[in-house]
Description:
This protein is an all-alpha fold. It folds into 2 domains: 1-53, Arc Repressor Mutant, subunit A; 56-194. The protein is built from 11 helices and no strands. It has helices at residues 7-28, 35-42, 46-52, 56-80, 88-104, 107-112, 115-122, 125-145, 154-167, 171-174, 176-194. Helix 4 (56-80) packs parallel to helix 8 (125-145) and helix 9 (154-167) runs antiparallel to helix 11 (176-194). It starts with 6 loop residues before the first helix and ends with a helix. The mean pLDDT is 86.
Amino acid sequence: MPKTYSDDERAYIKKRLKEEAAYLLSTFGIRRTTVDELVERVKIPKGTFYLFYDSKELLLFEVLIEQHEIIEQQMLDEIKALHGHATTDELTEIIYNSFLITDKIGLLRLITTGEIELLYRKLPQEVMQNHFIQDSSMIKSIGELLPLSSDINTDHFATAFRNLFITMVYKREMGEDFFNDALKLTIRGLVLQMIT
């Protein structure tokens, strides 16, 4: 019979699992992060892990999404601080900086090694769809803070920004010397189409 945990114990175990998953993910990647390593580091029985997550992939994806949400919230806070009046340059700079932060947290390394694809393949389709919906809602959130063009399709812009993010994987092949400037230029082009 599985052990029962109090609400405080459950919250602590979940917090520790996420902390260790974030560390192992950034240090060893997806393939080399195992449930055995996670439970050893958190000091719980292996069966307890499955009381919290159906798979390691769901835990790792949750950790990545939380990192993504922190960066997104920082970006939205910066936009909110503009009090509804953003120039093209200001909005471009805010979005561009969020791309650079995402690059620094190591997500691109997971993409370039193909590990993110491994993770996506093992996730239920509805988990991925919810993520894409969240990207569209981020554009809507920007629209609530700034006057955007009335005919804007948030799904199209969310996909355009996602595509732009994926190009960061090919920075070396595209020419590292000019990549960041080109990235900012492309973001500016999207922003010009977004702002009224």
